[in-house]
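Render this sequence as a predicted structure.
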Amino acid sequence: MNGNRSTRRLRVVAGSESLISSAGGALLLQTAAATGLDRSLRDALRPWRGRPARHDPGKVRLDLDATIVLAHSEKEGATPTWKRTFGFHPLLAFLDHGPGGTGEQLTGLLRVGKATANDAADHIAVLTDALAQLPVEQRSRVLVRGDSGAGVNAFLHHLHTLGLHYSVGVTAHHPIIDALAVLPRQAWRAALDADGQPRDGAQVAELTRWLRPARNPWPPGMRVTARRERPHPGAQLRLTDADGWRITVFATNVKGGRIADHELLHRQRTRCEDRIRCAKDPFGATCRCTASPPTSSGWRSLRSPATCSPGPSTSRSSAPRPGPGNRNGCAYGC
């Protein structure tokens, strides 16, 4: 390091991406656990945690996702879907308690099969009902997650107005591809796997400063991050993939921290998809779920879909992760 006479004061900036390496970050986390610093932080935050809360402040995760429910005969609201099937297209909201929790459903909006996945008004309606299910003191600490269906301008502006954090998917259109083309090679960082360790063949990079201004401005403070990974052998590339990489993009307004940690947090929203698979198993034959009694109305049966929960012999803390043998990919080994 060379001295600089004009510099009179040492200044530490914590928002830099290259502040510490991935290895240094892992070492720092292990040091915090070994010294008890992580437990001390939880204890220090306890006065701000309400009695019903099971999360540290700022970590209440609300996942929104739409799903296709098939209908095998003519029913009220059943129409052709975008997947060339026939049925319904409800939009659901789940509260994520982590891989060992129940992830119970908070609310759902019953929609006809032809309803689009990126309808901002529907997302706003489901979010409003879901927030109403939470204690008042927890509603401002929510992180809203969703796929590219939630990554629409009007919905993100609504989240910004409410002052909520969000992490939603974004479709890789031409502005994204153009930003990837001019992105410096050194901007890429190692992505993390589910255990928080560097994942081979996967990288993440922030695109925000390389994106050209949009015709319809996005909310202030929005950050756009891309993930690239070599596809599995035999996988077919999409039109939005670039240079042989499988590209996925998400947007968030969470400040600071490493983008690899933000990307892992966003990717963990797939637990919601696992719980929806369990919910769509009507009689629990392959998943230990509790379902509503069958009814003659498809709309009524959708009001309270099954919620995936551990069976009698499966504890929440030891629930197995989805594996190749799990037909439904359920977080509890279904």
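Summary. Residues 60 and 155 are 19 Å apart (CA to CA). The longest helix spans residues 22-35.
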